[in-house]
Amino acid sequence: MIALIQRVTQARVDIAGATVGAIDQGLLVLLGVEKGDDEAKAKRLADKVAKYRVFADSDGKMNLNVAQAGGSLLVVSQFTLAADTNSGNRPSFSSAAPPSEGERLYQVFCGLCQEQGLRVATGQFGADMQVSLCNDGPVTFWLQS
């Protein structure tokens, strides 16, 4: 399971011109589910995202996690993170989880983040989404479980 996280001042997801999820300060989490991923991997990754210290403390050091900074999560499914790009000029998605399993684990991940007290906004699994954000820093990290 892969999470590409970006520290944002704001982010939103639109589908067909309507906003379906939006946050102010927090983390945009682009989530990719791979074959073989399970609830245990979702839990490890949710814990890591929730605890990852990427927000500045009073001394300007990255010492605060999203909750300590008063932020939220916007979690967007993105199967392209599971692409195999090792050969050729076209990505292969053979390592991505099947859609039904990807959606199930996406929902599990979101629920685990909410259980940690985080406000979680989402996109819509499998939809054609337009994601807008203001990356703060820019600060972007690739996390994997």
Automatic annotation (TrEMBL):
Its biological purpose: An aminoacyl-tRNA editing enzyme that deacylates mischarged D-aminoacyl-tRNAs. Also deacylates mischarged glycyl-tRNA(Ala), protecting cells against glycine mischarging by AlaRS. Acts via tRNA-based rather than protein-based catalysis; rejects L-amino acids rather than detecting D-amino acids in the active site. By recycling D-aminoacyl-tRNA to D-amino acids and free tRNA molecules, this enzyme counteracts the toxicity associated with the formation of D-aminoacyl-tRNA entities in vivo and helps enforce protein L-homochirality.
InterPro entries, per the entry: Daa-tRNA_deacyls_DTD, DTD-like_sf
Organism phylogeny: Bacteria, Pseudomonadati, Pseudomonadota, Gammaproteobacteria, Enterobacterales
Protein name (record): D-aminoacyl-tRNA deacylase
Its EC number(s): 3.1.1.96, 3.1.1.-
Catalytically driven reaction(s): a D-aminoacyl-tRNA + H2O = a tRNA + a D-alpha-amino acid + H(+); glycyl-tRNA(Ala) + H2O = tRNA(Ala) + glycine + H(+)
Oligomer status and interactors: Homodimer.
GO cellular component: cytoplasm
Entry-linked SUPFAM superfamilies: DTD-like
Gene from which the chain derives: dtd
